[in-house]
Design goal:
Rossmann fold; 43% helix; single chain; four-stranded parallel β-sheet; alpha/beta; four-stranded antiparallel β-sheet; Four Helix Bundle (Hemerythrin (Met), subunit A)
């Protein structure tokens, strides 16, 4: 069964398909490792975890790459605040981030390249952009201005941004700028801040060159599925896609998927603003399965207001479903039911996930099944337990929930 997702670039549903004889190329934008991950990050990576799980459950191999941005202005500022080197802070927070993802029971990417390892390739990307004649220097920075492109080739750079992005320090909306969509490709900078040699002097490449260089090297472009949070549409994914269009005449990815924010007090959770709930705190409070149930209880592209009350309800709902499954499967229950209802449930969950990763609808299917079977008080027959177990194992494999 094909996985069909709402493609952000075209606004239409598109199937995730791989190149013949190759695994699906999945590139997910990773964290800037300067502080602890929050539950908004957790939701983002959970969505792509379910996408990968679905594909692999269908027998489709996936090559999953997630970058680690280990140098950036926010990281420099945080390191100075703490009195440590930027490299030491990046390594510490990278380890903590990967531990949190593992605690959430995500399938970790096969590759997690660091930005520092790809600076020479980013310099080469910058050099190629310089040759276009559309790069200008303004003080210590070199900026690339994209050419005009037909509508639909790239993400919008006008007031439509407000529908999917947030304006943050260093990333304002370019509504009044004469060079809407322009992005930095090099900045002069010297140690002790991050700095590398280049034809233009020592400094750092623009952030947006990072993912292009990595995806092109490790997966080949265009990738099959690419995404991150809604705030990455502009400027990050716009810039990545612009480089791909300039160099190859094709988009960065066949399918773009962007995950809705987790909101706190009506605004996007943000490390830079300090408005967040740490992922580790939520994991310690309710556990991985209940947190997964809560964060995936709203359609992936929609925003999710953070609510401790709803989190507690999600925990209770997950435990109710888990207990219903385990009771129905219990050998000592003396059941007479066939495995048919479990197999129908697994088929329903599979269909819901195939249509836009509708985890919310899949979970409602699980909840309704639990209600029905609890009211019936039945249990599966001993002779059919193996088939029933296989059905629930399939649900577990696709959702990441531990039911058995």
């Amino acid at each position: 069964m094909e996985l069909v997702l709402p493609d952000t670039l075209t606004g239409r549903p598109r199937a995730v398909r791989r190149k013949p004889g190759r695994p699906v190329a999945l590139y997910v934008c990773g964290p800037t490792v300067y502080d602890a991950a929050h539950v908004g990050h957790g939701r983002n990576y959970l969505v792509f975890d379910v996408a990968r799980r679905f594909l692999e459950a269908e027998g489709i191999p996936v090559r999953h790459v997630m970058n680690i941005t280990d140098f950036e202005d926010k990281l420099d500022a945080r390191a100075e605040e703490l009195g440590v080197s930027w490299r030491a802070l990046a390594r510490r927070e990278e380890r903590a981030f990967l531990r949190d993802l593992a605690a959430l029971h995500l399938l970790l990417p096969q590759l997690t390249p660091r930005a520092t390892e790809y600076v020479p390739r980013m310099v080469e990307v910058a050099r190629r952009l310089m040759r276009t004649g559309r790069v200008y220097r303004d003080g210590n920075e070199w900026t690339y201005t994209p050419p005009h492109r037909a509508a639909g080739k790239n993400f919008p750079t006008d007031r439509q941004l407000a529908a999917h992005a947030v304006s943050e320090p260093g990333h304002p909306f370019p509504e009044s700028a004469g060079r809407a969509g322009a992005f930095m490709i090099w900045r002069l900078q010297r140690p002790p801040k991050p700095s590398w040699p280049s034809p233009w002097g020592p400094g750092i490449p623009g952030w947006h060159l990072e993912c292009y260089a990595m995806a092109d090297r490790l997966l080949g472009l265009p990738v099959d599925l690419h995404g991150g949070g809604l705030d990455l549409i502009y400027p990050h994914h716009y810039a990545e896609n612009e480089i791909a269009l300039e160099f190859r005449g094709r988009p960065f990815s066949h399918v773009f998927l962007h995950v809705g924010f987790v909101l706190i007090d009506g605004s996007k959770m943000s490390k830079s603003r300090g408005a967040l709930v740490p992922l580790r705190t939520a994991l310690n409070e309710v556990g991985a399965d209940a947190l997964r149930w809560y964060l995936l209880s709203t359609p992936p592209t929609e925003r999710l207001p953070w609510s401790p009350v709803e989190l507690a309800r999600s925990r209770a709902e997950f435990l109710r479903v888990r207990d219903a499954v385990r009771h129905w499967m219990r050998a000592s229950a003396g059941g007479r039911d066939s495995a048919a209802s479990a197999r129908r449930l697994a088929a329903d969950v599979r269909r819901e996930l195939a249509r836009g990763l509708a985890t919310d609808r899949a979970f409602r299917r699980l909840s309704a099944w639990a209600t029905t079977e609890t009211e019936r008080g039945g249990a599966v027959a001993r002779t059919d337990r193996a088939r029933a177990r296989a059905a629930f194992r399939d649900i577990e494999a696709r959702t990441g929930l531990r039911l058995l």
